[in-house]
Structure formats: structure tokens, C-alpha cells
Design goal:
4 copies of one chain form a homotetramer.
Chain A lengths: L1 H4 L8 E2 L7 E4 L2 E6 L11 E4 L6 H10 L3 E4 L23 H9 L3 E3 L3 H15 L9 E7 L14 H4 L4 E2 L9 H10 L6 E7 L6 E8 L7 H8 L6 E3 L6 H4 L5 E7 L7 E8 L3 H15 L11
Parallel strand pairs in A: 1-3, 4-5, 5-6, 7-9, 11-12
Antiparallel strand pairs in A: 2-3, 7-10, 8-9, 10-13, 12-13
Helix pairs in contact in A: 3-9, 4-6
Chain lengths: 304, 304, 304, 304
């Protein structure tokens, strides 16, 4: 657990509905999982929340009333999420690199989904500069290790099903992360169609996204788009060589590469972006947001 | 070996430069690998040829002079291949389902590459009916098991490198199969850009291609495009559910599915296509072509 | 399904409590899974039975009363099994190679477990000739792919748990197959301790057993023990090179090798034995027994 | 690299014959791999040496002459190794937990092999207390991930060979680690036969050893043998539950469990022992020895 090794955070309680009562070893100390109803919120300065779909809004309000900040890992509070008409001011979307100023002053942050983290950090510099051809389709395929689906006990996650196989899912462009990505793309000023097809990989963890976009003009130095946009960012690595899952596993980084397509008439970029879905795609990103909210060094407790 | 189990084929020689002299068990008989120079071509009615890049033209001419038909598995004789100005009549491209008439009368057939087989059989019905939006980009990502690279001893094919990893390669749209695919797409009358990005999967065998195309109009029943085009084909399976590698491994089939993308303004199809790269993507396809060339039942000796 | 491809068997019904009502494609025909209570036993000449622990005796009696022969794949009727005091004559243990005569005339056969198949076929020639040192321990470790545990939905069979891992289980010498093996070893006249430790492999299928035994005398030609005992057996392969799972997967064979240990003072053999747990370790073995019971060619419908 | 993250070690040079000239990123600094002949040994306080078989003795002498201590990771200087008649005093065998006093004052330490580390730390408490039945065989099977064989480019280490497979090797009890283990067992006073059969696992890293031994008497509390012998050891974990590779990967620990065999007449223990072959089985153990030799805290720079 990241919180346990963090030099400036101390875990005061951990909730888990189904495992409540079970013991948890945290450093030298022992804790017990408790029900959310039993949490002494007034002891907490900041709460990491990962409730099931639809349950976040009420719990976040309870945390806020008790004076705790919240990093919410559910989809409820994200752009395009279930909860419309939430407390003003609006809840910032915790892609820290894009929203650092908003995260800094926030009481609640909506932590992004794993696929959107890999894809939006790759797309943002193109979108914010208006480089993508108007009306062209942004084509994204991505592949995730099995932990992207959580540790749920589903037949299609058995070893005998996953090993030596590879398949696409949500092939009708209707993955639950689509609205989240579309909302951010629209915020960044683009009206392009986004087509996103995820795949299930026979690996434990890691996401690789491959993005094909047409540009208005062919860039002379495609990597410069990202090296300039992300100069000084501790958790973004821009590289000429194509990233692989192995490069980012157990690290709170996104690694991005891009190449101009040959053999085509319209200027086209092929961008690859890799993250560890459990780190930069979930818990690592949450700690990064917590660090910013608490005014700590943003890299504290995070393996880069 | 497929030829060995084929009820109407009998192996008369097998060549292998580096393993020549080694024994080979074929059914009850023993054969020795020989050098191509030692092959008694006059004993053969048909030769399966898989020579290294650039070596096919001369060898094929030798086979033809000795009266043998040839299924050539190299890239040399394919559309867009190394060998320009070959013997007239032109050598048919052995995507049997698209070229059956030409294969039937041919003395030489150029067996397709593995990626093109999965991708072109999926694209052909759209292209031949002119359904794809003019000037739009055909975006293809595909993932292959390690045997797609042959059994060569390269560091990036070691278990310690491949397991728990996933990466793209040839990311500049310059894979050696690109010209082959572009040539066939042009033959089918389309001028669209083709962007193709292959990936290496931690599985032994199998290819899954995911294709995103814009159409002129949204089809009411997308699957009907393929079920009509391929009615009666013994080795093409069109299914509503997304194919996975497991569905096609050890079988000489391509399995194709397609769905209309939701959440977009331009009519868009997402097509998935799976083959076993060693069967329909190589040896199985070669036997299928041989069956047609020899006037045999096309399905003879092939696991469907 | 093996029965479906068998040239002399025709499936007349298939029972499955939880999937009853679901359709089943068998060759060109369609069947529906039915409850055991609805099975028209009088239509069947032979029944393959794989009921949960404890349920076999009653069902087998019902089948017999209706005139059907039974190959029972449960542990109930095996030596050391749950059902004591079953109908006379005693039910033969269907390790076909050791019990062919008894299987031939039987109305019911108890199909062996997967581990016992690999281990007992390797041990039998040593035991029946009295070669093992009296009072020495027979040390067996074995490793099985995940399908050895059935397709049950258990957390420890998830890809995220099994991949990149390896563990022993039943480490107190109390695996449910132990009594079955001990009973056969006693039948073959040996009183040695048997210590058996199974392991879970990150592969889909296959079992490899590694057996360490002390012998009374060092054999000059260890392999001859098995080649002589199993001369002419179609499903037993004795080889100088160590077998691996890959050698036997999808085939109804056991592959056995043995070597005399160097660097020891007591004559010692190290024997390795590999099977496909779903073929020779379960369904293949069952069909082999059915072939013998029905007076058919023993190899019919079985991939060797 | 462990040395790079070690708070009290600073890398002054790195040698690599084949990669010499290549750059190496160490923390913020850049180093180049150099040939051993170009190493400025007078700059080094301690040298980690991992030369090919047979090359260590001369190099170690050169290091010593220049005043550097050496942790040697080759097999040459280990008990039973190639180099007999080395400089007096004898070189201690760096199983730190068993040889701490000898390692402390040593100028050279022979770092143990990976299999011996897992097996000898499990056997030592039994051997030193004389608990194993005289004249009985110590039966050991072990399985290792592919990195146990080094990153060498051998066909049997290709993904297409290793995945979905499992095999034994050195099945004649002649593995190159056997002499090393036998020598230590003899040093601990036992004359028992040791039979050791290693296996290749389809995982990247990790070793699990399963050991079957007969004891003079059945222990009441088998785990107490190890908890007492290793009380206070920071890198030895004794647990009632069977260890798996996942428990120890990326950590410098050995995890040991043991159970009394049921269903046997002779008191018998089944012991399981797991390490990460690259950590406690190689580099981690080397740093642990270096810490002791340099008078540092033994746990410095090591993930437990």
C-alpha cells in the first residue's frame, strides 16, 4: 500500500464492507477494516475513497462536513460521471499534470480512470494547441492487464481463460470511460469523434494505448510537442523509442512516444502511451493528488 | 505438419539449408532434409516454398521448368513485393476466398502474409462495395503471438522479455506487410490512407486485428456485409460476438465481427478479425491454395 | 468433446445440473443439457458419469438397472474411495494398461484421477517386479496446470493470482488422490511410504510428476524396465529424454523417462512422467476404457 | 541495480566484456562499462565479481593485491567449486545467516548459488541438530524461473518454448550446484544421499524448493526448528502457510514452511522454501555479504 510507505501520511482507518473485521498490517501497526459508518472522519485530514458506482456523492459530503479532504477514485464525480449538480465549486478532475492549480485549492478531487489517464495525457498537448485535423476521427485502441478489471471473481478472469488469449471488449464504443474522455476532449476545445476499443491482455498489470490521429500539418519534430508541454514534469517520460508495459510497471509514470506515419497522404501521428494501471492509473495518481492538496512535495511516497 | 496428415498429398522431399541431413519423421516414413540444389523437382507435382527474402524468383522458375506447381510463402511474389517484372501471366495473390478463380488455373501462387490475411479478409467486403468514406483513414492495430516472428533466436523473443509485457513495433507505418496490403486495397478501388500498427503479445500464436473505418452511411445490419460476401465459405466465420485468439487457434479459419460505433457523429465501424498466424495466416492457407490448384476439395486436410 | 468425434460412439444425452436447458452443438446435431432425472437411460449403451463427490453410487446403480455400462469419473468408486461395500463383483480401476482384462468384462469402471494416472503408470513396472528398496520412501512431487482443479470459480485460479507464481498445496501428504495411489501400491505388493506433494503451475493444462525411489540394485538399463513392461502399448511412450508438458498436451498418452542418480551411495532412480490432465488424465482415459468395455479398437477416437 | 540505491555504497566502475563502451545510468551519474583490464582497482574498497566459470581466481587475486575486498558470484570459489588450493585462509561461503562470523573478517567471500541458497537455508537447522534419519535420502525437487539461467540467448529460453510448458533438467543428479550443496551438508555433519532435480518454470523469476526428508523422530512443532534457529534474522521468514514465489519476488528473503507428512510410517517432513533467484539467490545476498564485510548494518539497501 502506497499510503503506508508515504513519509508524510499516516493511515488512521481503512474501510471495506465485505472484509470488515479483518486485520490489516500497516508498517509496524495493526489496523482492522471497518465499515464506512464506523469511520471516525474527524480523525482524518484526507480520505481516499473508492466506493462502488453511485455511492460516492453522499459519502464525500459526509467527509467534507467532518472537515476532511477527499480524493475520490470512483467514476461518479468525474466529468461525464453519474453525479450531476454536485456542490459548487465544481470538483476538479485529478489529472494532476493538466489541473495542478485546480487540485491545489480543492477539497475534493475526482481521480481519473486508468484508460483516460494513459490516453488524455497523450492527447492533451495536441488538443490544447489545436493540432488535430478538424472533423477527423481520433482512433484509440488500448490493452490492459487483468487487474484493470479489479480483483473480482469473474469467469473471464480465470487463468484458464486469459492465458494464451487476447480479445477486444466494449467494441461498440461504449466503454464506461468514454464519457470521461469525451468530456475532457470537449473541454480542451475539440469536437472530433473519439473511437476507443479496449482489449484484455494476458498480463497482470499495465496499459498500453495506441492512438492514431490526423494533424492539420506534419510536425517537424513530433516528440517536441510533448517534451515542451511536459517540461519539468516528474511523472511524464517522453521517449523516441516505443514504450512497453515493462517500462512503467510499479512506477507512477506515463511514458509517451510518437511517430509520423509514412506511406500516407494526410499528415498522421501514431502515439503510444503506457502506464501501470494500479499506479499512475489509480493509487499512485491518487497519492499525487493528495500531495498537491496537502501542500506537500508532489513526488512524496511515489516510485518514479 | 499439415502436408503429412493431408489425405491426398504425399511429401516427396523437404529442404532446409541449416538442418540438411537431419531426419524428419513423416507418418510412418523417414525423410532427410536436403539442400534445394539436391531436390528432385521432377518427382514433385507441387512445391511449398518458404525461402528467405529475395531468393524465391529463381527457385520458382526452376520448379516451373521442372513442371511443378508452386505455392510460395515468401513476400517476394506478393503485390508490392520485391520481384517486379516476373513471368507473365501475373502471379495470383493467394487470399483464396478473394482470388479463387485466379488460383485455380495458376502454376504459381503467392501465399499472403499473416497480418494481411486477417486484415484484408475483413476489409474486402467494405472495399469492393465502396462503403468506406472517401479520403478517411483506415486505422488498423493488430497484435500477434511470438511465432509471428518465426522461431528465430532474438533477444526480444526470450520468455524473460515477452512475458508480462506488451509493445507496439514498426510504429512509423512502415511494416513489411504494408505495401502488400496497400496494393490489394488499391486493386479493390480505394485510395484511403492505411495506418497499420502491429504489437507483440505474450502468447505463442494467434493474431487479432482491430480496424476502425468511417463509412459513407451507417449500415442497418453491419454483420450482413460479411455474411453475404462470404456465404458458403468454409473457412470464414462471421459472428455477432467479438472473436478472440482462443476461438481460432489450431484452425484454418478467420473469424470476423463488426459493430457500429456509438457516441460519434460520423458513421463508423469497429471490426475485429482473428486468425491463427501459423494456420490461416501461413501453412493452412498454403494447403488451401494447393487444394484449389490441384483441383482437390478445398477443405482437404485442413482443421476448420 | 471426444465422444462427439468418436467414429463408433453417438451421444444420446448430456446432463448438467446447472446448465440444464442450455444447447449443445454436437457435430451437426443440437442437444440440450438435461437433468440426470430426465435422462432416458434405456437409450444409452454406456454412460460417462462425472457427478460430484458422494453422488455416484446411486446413479451408477440406476444406470446398471437400465442396462447401461458406466465409466465413472468421480473418486467415489476408486480404490480408497468413499464408497465401500459396493455391488459385487468389485469395480475395476480403469488404468487400462494395468487392468485391461478386468475392464473388458466390466459393467462399471472407475476412471482414475489425473495425478494417479501419471504416477502409477510410472511406478507400476518397478512395483510389480519388486525393484524398490523395502522400507524406503517413494518421494513424489508433481505439478499441474490450472484445469486440474476444474473450471471452478475460485480466487486462487484467477489469472492475477496464478501467473508468475508457483506454489505447493496439500503439503501434509493428504491430497485426496493419496488413498487411491496407496491402495494400488499395496495391491502391487509394496509397503513403502508414499509422500506426494502437488504444485500449481501457471499453465492451462498438463501434469509432470517427478519421482525419486531407491532400488534394491542399480539397473544397467533403466529405460528397459518400462519398454519391456509396456511393449506394444499404443498410449505409453518411453523415452531417453526427459518429457515435458508440451510433449503430451492434447494427446492421450503418458510419456515416461528415467535416469539413475549419480553422486549417491544407494541405487536411486529419478523418474519423470507427463500427461495431459484433460486427456490421459481424464476424458481420454475414459474413452479408452469405454472402447475396451464395448469391445472396440482401444485407440478409436483418441489422439495419440 | 542494488548497488546504485544503496545508501552507503558508491559505484566507481562497472565491467562488462561484451558491452564495454556502453553507457550506464547510475542515479544521476553516467558511467561506461569498461574491460576488467581497465578497472582502477585502487579506487574500489569492495568489488562484486561475476566472471565466467574458471576466471575468478586470478581476478580475485588482482583485486586483493590492490587492496579491494571481493564478493565473488561465480561458482569457482564455493565449496566443491573449480578452484582448489586457493589462498589461505580459506574463503568463507557467503550464506550469511550460517557464516556471519567468517564473512565478517573475510577479504573474499564466495556468494552461494541460487538453488543452494533456497535449499541449504531450509536444511541447515535439521542438519546441525542431527534430526535427519541416518542413511535416508534427502529428496529435493526445485523449480526456477527463466532468469535462473541468466539472460543468455538459448532456444530453450524463447517464449514460444517456455510458455505453457514445464520440464525437469539435470535429471541424473548432476546439476552444477550439487557439489556445492553436498559439500555444505558434509560440513554440517551429515552423510545422507542428496538427490536434487531442478525444473524450468514459465515465470520470469523465483525459485521454489520442495524437500522431503525422514527424521529420527516426529517433531511436535516442526516450525519451531526454524523459528528457533533463525530467531532475529531479518531476511528469513518462517510461516505456517506454504510459501509461493509471489511472496518473495523482488525481496531479499527466504521464506520457509514445513509440515509433518500424514499417512506414512516413518516420521517425514515436507519442507518448502522460496526465494527470488535474482535477490536472495544472487545480487541481494551479495550486498548482504558486502554489508557484513564492510561493517555496515546488514540490511542496508536491501528490500525485505
Amino acid at each position: 500500500m502506497l499510503a503506508e510507505r508515504h513519509p508524510a501520511l499516516k493511515l488512521v482507518f481503512a474501510t471495506a464492507h465485505e472484509q470488515r473485521g479483518q486485520e490489516l498490517q500497516v508498517g509496524g501497526r495493526k489496523l482492522k477494516f471497518i465499515a464506512t459508518d464506523d469511520a471516525r472522519l474527524e480523525d482524518a485530514e484526507l480520505v481516499f475513497s473508492a466506493l462502488p458506482h453511485g455511492a460516492s456523492a453522499q459519502w464525500v459530503a459526509r467527509c467534507r462536513a467532518a472537515g476532511a479532504m477527499v480524493v475520490d477514485l470512483s467514476a461518479d464525480l468525474r466529468p461525464g460521471g453519474a453525479e450531476v449538480g454536485l456542490p459548487t465549486p465544481p470538483i476538479p478532475y485529478g489529472l494532476t499534470e493538466l489541473m495542478r492549480a485546480e487540485v491545489k485549492g480543492a477539497g475534493v478531487v475526482a481521480n481519473p480512470g486508468c484508460y483516460p489517464t494513459a490516453i488524455l495525457l497523450a492527447l492533451a498537448p495536441l488538443l490544447s494547441r489545436g493540432l488535430i485535423e478538424a472533423d477527423s476521427t481520433i482512433s484509440v485502441t488500448a490493452a490492459s492487464g487483468v487487474t484493470g478489471a479489479g480483483y473480482t471473481l469473474r469467469p473471464e478472469l480465470l487463468f484458464a481463460e486469459v492465458a494464451e488469449d487476447f480479445r477486444a471488449y466494449a467494441v461498440d464504443n461504449n466503454h464506461r470511460h468514454l464519457d470521461e474522455m469525451t468530456a475532457v476532449i470537449r473541454d480542451l476545445g475539440a469536437e472530433n469523434d473519439l473511437v476507443f476499443t479496449p482489449h484484455l491482455l494476458p498480463v497482470a498489470r499495465g496499459i498500453l494505448a495506441t492512438i492514431i490521429v490526423r494533424l492539420c500539418d506534419a510536425p517537424r519534430d513530433p516528440l517536441a510537442i510533448w517534451t515542451e508541454a511536459y517540461a519539468g514534469e516528474p511523472f511524464i517520460e517522453v521517449r523516441p523509442e516505443t514504450p512497453s508495459i515493462r517500462d512503467v510497471v510499479r512506477r507512477n509514470v506515463v511514458r509517451i512516444s510518437a511517430a509520423v506515419a509514412e506511406n500516407v497522404r494526410h499528415p498522421t501521428l501514431i502515439i503510444t502511451s503506457a502506464i501501470d494501471n494500479l499506479m499512475k492509473g489509480a493509487a499512485g495518481q491518487a497519492v499525487q493528488n493528495a500531495n498537491v492538496m496537502l501542500g506537500l512535495d508532489e513526488t512524496l511516497g511515489l516510485p518514479a
